[in-house]
Each structure stands twice: as C-alpha cells, then as structure tokens.
Request: fold
Amino acid sequence: MVGKYKDFKTITKDDLKQMMKTKQNLMLIDVLSSDSYHKSHIPGAKNIPLGPDFETGIKRLLPDKEQPIVVYCAKYECQASPTAARKLLRMGYTDVSDYAGGLKEWTDSGYPLQGDA
Reply:
C-alpha cells in the first residue's frame, strides 16, 4: 500500500492486481466521464462519473456499505478519485481504496484494457 489519507487507502497497480485476483466481491469504479469509460477502462470496472449523480449511482450499484471498493481516475495528478473516495466515506462505506496511478499508469504498464479504443 502506498499510503492512507483520511481513512481511505491509496493503492498501487500491484495492490489492485492482487485485489482483483483475491477479492471476488471487489467493486472497481471508474469515476471518469462515460465517454472516457467507453473508450477504455480497466477490465471489470463499472462507470460512475464523479458529478451530480455520483451518490445516486453509488447507492444503486452498491447497497452493501462494507463491500470493498476501489476508485480510479486518469492519473496521479487527477483529483476525481480521491474526491470520490472521500464522498464514499461520508456516505458510510467502510472499505474504500483509491488507485492513484489511474488509467495512465495501468496503460503504461501494459495491462489489458476494455473499451472501444
């Protein structure tokens, strides 16, 4: 693990790969726009863009507030996923991680993507 900020964990690509293998109920959430998601996203990710409908989308997709959740956005400098992680914690979710490297690090590492790109 890279670090911890206000109760959500910041994880590395290796942490995420391990979690994807070992946590069957892991919910991976791409918080980028739906256009970005359709072009490319990490396999298995669901798209809930960070915006006015974020909380509604989360409540619909994730009724279990103890389910492990990993959010990601574009890259390290992107603040959408840390913002989403903080919102999830405020909503009462208890197992929230932020994959800080995001789509760019995943792609640069040569890991597979899904989407139209």
Notes: The chain has one domain: 3-108. The first strand starts at residue 3 and ends at 5. Strands lie at 3-5, 8-11, 27-30, 46-47, 69-72, 96-99. The helical segments are 13-22, 34-39, 54-61, 80-90, 102-108.
